[in-house]
Design goal:
- The protein is α+β, with helices and mostly antiparallel strands and about 260 residues long.
- The protein has two domains: about 25-165, no CATH class; about 195-255, no CATH class.
- The chain is about 40% helix and about 15% strand.
- It contains seven helices and five strands.
- The strands form two sheets. It has a three-stranded antiparallel sheet with strand order 3-4-5.
Length: about 260
């Protein structure tokens, strides 16, 4: 029996760890199989924890694609992009395969979707981001099908981090003026100076469209000060809010995000 050539792996399952026959991991007796897998898991955990190749979600560690690629490479297996297809709704479906380096055989395959309308926040990301994440998810899924049990032995969740929901959706665009805040408690009045109140109440009328009373009520709900209303009023019309017509006050309300 000749020695194997350096770099050549005889086994087709967990090749870097197990030397010599049998040809498949399934041919190994259960005790030896678990011993090999445990050794892989121990080495994997040290690498993943050291390099932080996981995402913390709800207090649990979900391995990233780099962690899945690490366990694959330890078994002499790499991932390749096989196909990427753009769907009518702007999403992408990607397929990835796992290739064994010792003989080039395809030992795994998986597909994944990214950018569907309900796939937040990816549905609103640029097209190249959606395509790239579809490939990343497909690669993670292909490795998961082969190695999720070893990942679990290492103490990680067997679901790729890329498939878990993240609270990183972009915040909604703010208005041109000040953003509207949440409604304050009803027992928390806005801060109004005596001078501001005098301006507001000088000519207040209870009728018509955007009265001072109505504008004041909306400003209070958005925690916008009366002085801010006067600043915007002078900017638009050159006079304080109490001197405007109801139509002009409506314009101020629109500019301040109160309409």
């Amino acid at each position: 029996m000749t020695d194997p050539i350096e770099g050549e792996f005889i086994e087709k399952g967990l090749a870097p760890i197990v030397a010599g026959p049998p040809a498949r991991l399934s041919d190994v007796d259960p005790e030896r199989m678990i011993a090999v897998a445990s050794k892989l898991a121990s080495t994997l955990k040290r690498i993943v924890d050291d390099r932080k190749l996981y995402a913390m979600i709800s207090g649990r560690k979900y391995p990233t694609v780099e962690a899945w690629m690490t366990i694959g490479r330890m078994d002499n297996t790499v991932a390749q992009e096989e196909s990427v297809t753009r769907q009518d709704d702007g999403s992408y479906v990607a397929t990835a395969v796992l290739v064994r380096l010792s003989d080039g055989a395809i030992v795994g395959r998986a597909s994944a979707l990214c950018g569907a309308p309900d796939d937040k926040p990816w549905s609103s990301r640029p097209e190249y981001n959606r395509r790239s994440m579809a490939v990343t998810r497909a690669i993670s899924r292909a490795f998961r099908a082969q190695y999720s049990w070893i990942m679990a032995l290492a103490g990680y969740e067997p679901t790729p981090a890329e498939e878990m929901p993240h609270d990183d959706a972009p915040r909604p665009a703010q208005t041109a003026a000040r953003p509207r805040a949440a409604e304050p408690p009803t027992n928390t009045p806005p801060t109004v100076t005596d001078a501001d109140m005098a301006d507001l109440t000088a000519t207040a009328t209870p009728s018509a469209d955007m009265t001072i009373t109505e504008l004041q009520r909306r400003a209070a709900g958005a925690t916008i000060g009366i002085s801010d209303l006067n600043v915007k009023s002078r900017e638009l019309f050159g006079k304080n809010i109490n001197l405007l017509t109801n139509a002009e006050r409506q314009t101020v309300a629109v500019e301040m995000g109160l309409a």
